[in-house]
Amino acid sequence: MRHGAGFRVVRAVLLGLFALYFFLPLISMANFSVQGKGPLEGEITFHYYAELVRNEDLRSAIVSSLLLAAFTVLLMVVLLVPTMIWVRLRTPGLSRTVEFLCLLPLTVPPLVIVVGITNVYTWVNYLLGDSPQVLVFAYVVLVLPYSYRSIDSALSAIDVTTLAEAARSLGAGWTTVITRIVMPNIVSGVLGAAFIAIALVLGEYVFASLLHYDTMPVALAAIYKSETSTAIAGAFASIVLISLLLLGLSFFNRSKAPDVGGQKA
Amino acid sequence: MLPFFGFLAVFLIVPTVTVIIGAFQDGETGGFTMGNIEALGSSAAIDTLRKSLLLSGSTALLGGVLGAVLAYLIVSLGPRSILRRTTLSIAGVLAQFGGVTLAFAWISLLGFSGLLTVVLRDGIGFDIYGTGWLYGLKGLIVVYTYFQVPLMVIVFTPALEGLRPQLKEAAVNLGATNFQYWRMVGIPLLTPAFLGSVLLLFANAFAAYATAAILVSQGNPIVPLLIRSALTSEVLLGQQNLGFALATEMIVVVAIVMGLYALLLRRTSRWLR
Questions:
Q1: Do you know which CDD domains this protein is assigned to (chain A) (predicted)?
Q2: Which of A21, A249, B20, B53 has the most neighbouring CB atoms within 10 Å?
Q3: How far apart are the first and last CA of chain B?
Q4: For residue B129, which residues of chain A lie inside 8 Å, CB to CB?
Q5: Under CATH, to which class is A49-256 assigned?
Q6: Which chain B positions have a beta carbon within 8 Å of A15's beta carbon?
Q7: How far apart are CA B231 and CA B225, in angstroms?
Q8: What is the pLDDT of residues A55-114, one digit of tens each?
Q9: Would the CB atoms of A246 and B96 count as touching at under 8 Å?
Q10: Is there a contact between A116 and B206 if contact means CB atoms under 8 Å apart?
Q11: Which domains does chain B have, with CATH numbers?
Q12: Can you tell me the ipTM of this complex?
């Protein structure tokens, strides 16, 4: 499509305005987090970032969140990948059901799940104790739709049946087929799923706050009134980390598609 | 296979069913009652629902229109533009941006000592803070729009890309002006996709909780916050079941919206590639 000079100017101006709208809150957050307050008045300082590690409650909350992210990825991969491979190979009739179940959390608001999950968590706490790490179960449900899509597109790109039959005819068992034949071929999809899972878990507030577990977002919200600058520094650090993960994800997905023209958005 | 279904049954199906059954249960006796559902008809609950719908509707329309414009600008950059790839990636990030961080970002911009508030106050003496509108329904509209626009870009761009250039060429060959092409070909083709995307945005805003929970300090202007207060309230017994009823109300609204979305999606795919 060819465009006139007038259109180009209007487009540049509008894109600039959109950029301003989207970046202004981020810039002001960065600015706020390095402006000294109180005794540090008027200085540019990284004091509040150091505070994130120095404050003991905050540090343990950050560690909790990072651990939770790791556990969520682990459990998600263990539950989802073998199931999806198995469905493709042995029970293709169930593929619609699995897809529906995986995408269901997009339709049921997380808040609704929290409201109903208290009884389940009474049992979880009874069996596994009361550490924030038990949130991993709820978080796997939360990341399921995104992980499913990522892994599903990776599986569609390879010929699972042929690979599996070849491996089986050479004497491989089902475990070997899944872990050593199919898994290495869909590693990009699994990594994509892991990235988005980490990004979602690090920012999750609904479950953690209503079930009373101190994860990073909950801790930041708790100190916001008394130590605003530290809270904002923590929030900015987390958004930078999450953005890097998600940007990494989008570049990752792109490298799979060699031709830009034929690529889905 | 079995662990997967077992897991989903316990952590997804059981909670949802608990909510729906709980909505019809008496908090003290556990017997069947329509009391919780009737409580949804109280003027306070209706007012909250109205505000929730207003918030979701206005940010879905605002985000829909702005997002469609932005998506068009991005698509017009051409398929090999680096700027286009970058903007789409950033949109992917910003659409996930929410909760605590988003609320903090806007407070640092428009809060009492926010960047823009201070600059405007000291610079031209304009008071943008006012009486703290950021912490009420108006603030929520502004803040929600921030993640609605990029979400619209993501869901609407494929539809715009599917608009075949041949259609425009054909229209121009038949003597159509640019305006006529959009009015009689482009916009009618894109309307189902646009409405579908707007519905998705509506559901997205309606279900959002975290940002509002941080931002709103007084009262419970929207349904998710009313649910929070029903869950955490220790003033009245049986409030938990009112929470269940409100949560059921949310399921119903979101289910209706997503059902309409599925219907529209079927119409969309016919003409677009």
A1: TM_PBP2
A2: A249
A3: 36
A4: none
A5: mainly alpha
A6: 70, 73, 83, 87
A7: 10
A8: 888 899 999 999 999 999 999 999 999 999 989 888 888 888 898 888 888 888 889 998
A9: yes
A10: no
A11: 2-268 (1.10.3720.10)
A12: 0.83
